[in-house]
Amino acid sequence: MELGRLEYLQALVTEFQATESAEAKEQVLANLANFAYDPGNYEHLRRLQVLDLFLDMLGESSDTLVEFAMGGLCNLCLDKTNKDYILEANGVEPIINCLSSANEETVMSAVTTLMYLTTPQSREQTTALPVVECMLRFSLSASRRLSNLATVFLQDYCTPLQVEEARSLSKHTAVGIPLPKD
Question: What pTM, to 2 d.p., does this model score?
Fold first, then answer.
């Protein structure tokens, strides 16, 4: 059965790489992101370099591909080996860039992923000043889900000093990461 699972995931990765159809790519990436929920698939997904595939897709122009890739990373980063891999692959920066997505699902997954990726070693990067400023803006969002998640991020992952520094900077600037569209 295990071999069957690996072969099936391999077929999905091959289909993703081979297809020219944008719709097929989206469907396959959605399937891979869903398989990333199951810890029983983690080893197979690592062997098939799906973490790299998800990280690569974060730079795509298709909002849908970015959404599914971000969701897949969010699902995978609960595992310590996957978390370490994403951190070592310089995955935090492209994840932070997803905070500026107009797609709320992408933003929610990016915020959650940053939470999961925060370690004593990565905290400086995952809670950098622009991220904290962004979370302050998100905490004021009309979207209850985003507002609540950003508030948890600020309370649980940032120091009071970081929040205060971001607040004082936000008063002096109008530029920043826009809120996602509902």
Answer: 0.90
